[in-house]
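FORM 12-B: Structure-to-Sequence Request
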């Protein structure tokens, strides 16, 4: 058969050489499955590109990286590296995380490469959208501005995350033609370009050109851009500019689905798929379970390791809260935190205590948000029953006695909001990039830096007052043998 095929091809080529009927168009055929410029320079084409720029908010861009390496909540690079959590599991499992946790990382650690690639893939997709939107002729001026503003918001978001993570980063935009220019003289010299003004400009453009409300709740709106712009000012220590923008966001901000920014009464509503996209959600990565794909690609894959070990969740015992985090929730009798001395008297734990042995939880005053954040022995673990302690922990000596909680779905709604399509669960719980509580606390920091301590305290107390509401207490079960029946 191969011989016949070669003869046929040779005959065709010979005909082209001996006649004038063949020309370059014979070989110049479009690749099957490829998108051409004509398709992209249309309303449908550029909206598809914009959707692609949103699609990598979860960090997942290729099949050769693990979802947790690029998780948008940055639980490894933030909480684990910062001390709020241990890696979890046991020491050998995902050993590269140990380097980040113990500040012994080196350039060969693949986690850094994954995070870098994920960030710049987002930048690339935003840039591609910006390149083509200028060529589209079947958009109204308003539609064109909105697409440009959304793409610039997303680019600002990706660059903000890269700047936090790596600091010295090259700026590449839709007008860049020489991609080696930032490193042209010395590939081993860090990039020293100040990208903050560019990030600031992207968010400013988005704030000026995005609508208050969007047709899809997951899209960025004017006020998400304003919150990010204020945060960008704060990171640059531009306190006066930050204050002016925070004032606007706090006074007038609404969500993409039109809800006036506010703190939810129930702290837990921010971490429950049934109550997501509420008035506190400023910008979030949207997640969905059971979407018909037979995988958890859209179901918060970045958190798939972070469930109690040998539990109803099956896997995997990572992201265990630290004793330092738990201790920080200790309060005095009036509910005020011990800012500098909270580690002096650690919260009682079941460290080293078998689940079959008796244990009584700490009975001192604690901030009620603790038990919506951390799973600890003897305390209701949502509606899954009381946390059994060591039985749900892979290695207490390595990672301590606690389990994560904010990323966990409720038993009563697991059929709708969890996804069991693979070896570890997915969930429909959104990843909150900015919520209104963050805005208030960032505004408080800004006011404190400007010497306005009374205003700073006012903002902090708004967040604290929510925590004190009775609805935020963790109560006993009505029926211990049937936790889903509710709390007393």
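FORM 12-B RESPONSE
SEQUENCE OUT:
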């Amino acid at each position: 058969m191969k011989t016949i095929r070669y003869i046929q091809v040779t005959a065709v080529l010979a005909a082209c050489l001996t006649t004038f009927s063949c020309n370059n168009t014979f070989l110049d055929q479009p690749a099957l499955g490829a998108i051409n410029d004509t398709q992209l320079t249309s309303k449908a084409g550029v909206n598809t590109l914009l959707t692609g720029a949103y699609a990598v908010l979860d960090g997942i861009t290729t099949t050769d990286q693990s979802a947790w390496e690029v998780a948008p909540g940055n639980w490894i690079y933030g909480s684990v590296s910062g001390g709020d959590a241990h890696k979890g599991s046991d020491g050998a499992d995902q050993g590269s995380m140990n380097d980040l946790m113990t500040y012994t990382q080196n350039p060969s650690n693949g986690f850094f490469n994954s995070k870098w690639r994920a960030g710049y893939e987002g930048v690339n997709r935003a840039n591609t959208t910006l390149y083509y939107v200028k060529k589209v002729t079947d958009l109204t001026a308003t539609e064109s501005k909105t697409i440009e503003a959304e793409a610039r918001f997303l680019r600002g978001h990706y660059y903000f995350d890269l700047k936090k993570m790596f600091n010295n980063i090259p700026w590449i935009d839709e007008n860049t033609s020489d991609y080696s220019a930032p490193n042209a003289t010395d590939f081993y010299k860090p990039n020293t370009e100040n990208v903050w003004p560019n990030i600031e400009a992207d968010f400013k453009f988005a704030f000026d050109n995005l609508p208050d409300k969007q047709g899809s709740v997951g899209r960025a709106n004017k006020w998400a851009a304003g919150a990010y712009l204020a945060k960008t000012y704060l990171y640059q220590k531009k306190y006066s500019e930050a204050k002016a923008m925070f004032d606007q966001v706090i006074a007038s901000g609404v969500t993409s689905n039109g809800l006036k920014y506010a703190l939810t009464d129930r702290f837990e509503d921010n971490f429950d798929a049934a109550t997501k996209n509420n008035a506190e959600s400023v910008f979030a990565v949207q997640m969905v379970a059971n979407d018909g794909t037979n995988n958890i690609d859209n179901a918060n894959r970045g958190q798939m390791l972070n469930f109690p070990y040998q539990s109803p969740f099956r896997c995997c015992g990572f992201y265990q809260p630290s004793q330092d985090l738990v201790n920080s929730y200790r309060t005095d009798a009036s509910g005020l935190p011990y800012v500098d001395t909270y580690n002096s008297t650690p919260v009682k734990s079941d460290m080293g205590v078998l689940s079959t042995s008796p244990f009584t939880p700490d009975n001192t005053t604690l901030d009620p948000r603790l038990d919506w954040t951390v799973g600890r022995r003897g305390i209701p673990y949502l509606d899954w029953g009381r946390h059994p302690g060591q039985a749900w922990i892979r290695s207490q000596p390595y990672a301590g006695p606690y389990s994560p909680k904010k990323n966990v779905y409720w038993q009563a709604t697991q059929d709708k909001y969890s996804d069991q399509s693979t070896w570890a669960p997915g969930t429909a719980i959104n990843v909150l990039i900015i919520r209104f509580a963050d805005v208030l606390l960032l505004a408080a920091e800004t006011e404190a830096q400007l010497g306005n301590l009374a205003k700073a305290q006012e903002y902090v107390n708004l967040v604290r007052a929510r925590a004190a509401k009775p609805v935020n207490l963790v109560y006993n079960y009505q029926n211990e043998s049937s936790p889903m029946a509710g709390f007393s």
